[in-house]
Amino acid sequence: GAVVGRSAASCRQLASTARRKVRDTEAAGAAERGREEVVAAFLAACAGGDLDALVRLLDPAVVSRADGGERVRTARKEIVGAETVARYLLNVVGKQEQRTTRLVASIEPVNGRTGIVARDEGRVIGVFDLEIVGGRITQIAILVNPEKLRERLG
Predict the structure, then answer these.
(1) Model pTM above 0.85
(2) Measuring CA to CA, which of 1, 9, 84, 123 is 20 to 30 A from 98?
């Protein structure tokens, strides 16, 4: 204790706090890696049109909300339930793919965590923010409103 100018009890407390912070940081890193796996599987299922895989990733009570503003047509109400949300998402992806051959979706930071950004000819046309609990997607926020995308992305 004399070397660092603290009592033995104070040093033990400091060491305990440091160990807890290391454990919390490691747990957060593991959670983010787990999140990345779920996001990647979600993107693959959507891109591949795999309904069964998509349903398995979604919580049975998943809620999907979309914001298209005045210019982009989206579901006006939230969509609830794994099967319903999965069918809706695959329908949306299918329609977008019919409109363009240059649709590219990538895993990128969205709202400070791993999400999905969709681009058409390099222009961002949509952002997907996924809430994941226990390895399953519980909420999906889809932003396709051009005004809000411009505000967020500059």
Answers:
(1) no
(2) 84
